[in-house]
Sequence to fold (152 residues):
Amino acid sequence: MRLQLTRRTDYAIRACIHLAAEDRCPISSRRIAERMDIPDGFLPQVMGDLTRAGIVGSVNGKNGGYCLRRDPASLSLFEVVEVVEGSGQFDRCVMRGTPCHDSPTCALHPVWSKAQAAFVGVLAAATIADLAARQRTATNGDEHPRPERTNR
Fold:
């Protein structure tokens, strides 16, 4: 498990927050990419992950785009991360790089297990609706600020 998200996960979170923050549906991939500073070529891959997981739905046609299929108030940040990162990312032994089992344990197991549980708990407690509301508040009048680019 990394304590840093991949770009793909970062983009999936951004897209979900944007879909939750918009008052309309569907929203074009071009608009999502532009507003959330996601590369146009990368967005369809991310949206495909979210669509296959049932988080997002797509509408074809001239006025098509994407809509959240899940209520953002019941969609946790952890669920979005897990769709992209995979569920196995949260049970890997840092000493062996393989799935971590309770027996036999490595010296780091008790500490790392607590850290992972805390990390997952924080992500699970945050909803996409909460994050979208924070995004709206943070914009302070600027309807759609671009997220800061990260060097990952």
Q: What stands out?
A: The domain at 7-139 is CATH 1.10.10.10 (Arc Repressor Mutant, subunit A). The chain has a mean pLDDT of 83. The two ends are 16 Å apart (CA to CA). The CA atoms of residues 2 and 70 lie 27 Å apart.
